[in-house]
Amino acid sequence: MRHRATATSSSNRPSLPRYLAPLLALLPLAAAAQDPTTDSTLLGVGVRSRPAYDGSDTQRAEAVPVVRYYGPVLFVRSTRGPLEAGAHFEVLPGLNAGLQAAYEPGRQADESDFLENRRIPDVDAGASYGGHLEWNGKLGPSPVNLILRARKHTKAERGAQADLRFTAGVFQAGRFTAGIVAQATWANAKSTASMYGVSPEQSALSALPAFEAGSGLQAGSLGLIWAFDLAPRWVLVGNLEGRRLQGDAARSPLAERRSNYYATVGVAYRY
For a tag site, which of 6, 143, 179, 260 has the least CB within 10 Å? Predict the structure, then answer.
């Protein structure tokens, strides 16, 4: 019989990761800040440390692109979360609307001993399509960017998600700039189930309890982004992000832990 997990104990309530708390101390320095991801066109490569999947206890490293291009109509970027490309237009001063296609990561069992030992099947990487609203402005002296995205996976069984992402520049000193980023992600039942559900057939093979995942808030994150000018045309960029699963994703038998981190460092050429 499938079941839904009972409420978690008070020790599992959402909390701010300890290593992100010092970021709040940067806020009084926002008067001299810039958003390090809103510079001119960037093209480069980086290395990222990530979990095998959100909820995994295994960390992996991979090469990732560093790209940012905003044309009058077309754009390509990896600096606002996913690697995505599309078209946008201004509807009001500072407010843009657009359409985008994005890369959607999957889940490979051979990257996690937990999944491999329990014969949990892979979830292939793919793509999504959708729309967004994006606002660039200021809150006091701090430059801010706010994006609301909705996207649907090209495979129907992977479902749909929406996310709200906030970025603010908080510090600048010489050639170094830094900002904070916060994001909330919501998923429908198909999307959550594709990554965190356990079917009766999988339960029989894995000895995990069957789990029917539903819709709702899937994850929240908070992090730091930064950039350092190495030369007039070369820039070192990076980020550190803590992500915490919520709702049925956090209660899934596939979630070894609720909190994970992502860290990236890369070098890019500024055009």
Answer: 6
Q: Which helix (H) or strand (E) holds 180?
A: strand 176-187
pLDDT in tens, 79-132: 999 999 999 999 999 999 999 999 999 999 999 999 999 999 999 999 999 999
pLDDT tens digits, 141-184: 889 999 999 999 999 999 999 999 999 999 999 999 999 999 99
Q: Which of helix, strand or coil describes residue 206?
A: helix
Closest CA to 97 of 87, 108, 88: 88
Residue 132: name the closest of 101, 100, 159 by CA.
100
DSSP 125-166: -EEEEEEEEEEEEEETTEEEEEEEEEEEESSGGG-EEEEEEE
What CATH class is the domain 17-67+134-270? mainly beta
Torsion sign over Cα 80, 175, 48, 75: positive
- pLDDT grade for 4, boundaries at 50, 70 and 90: very low
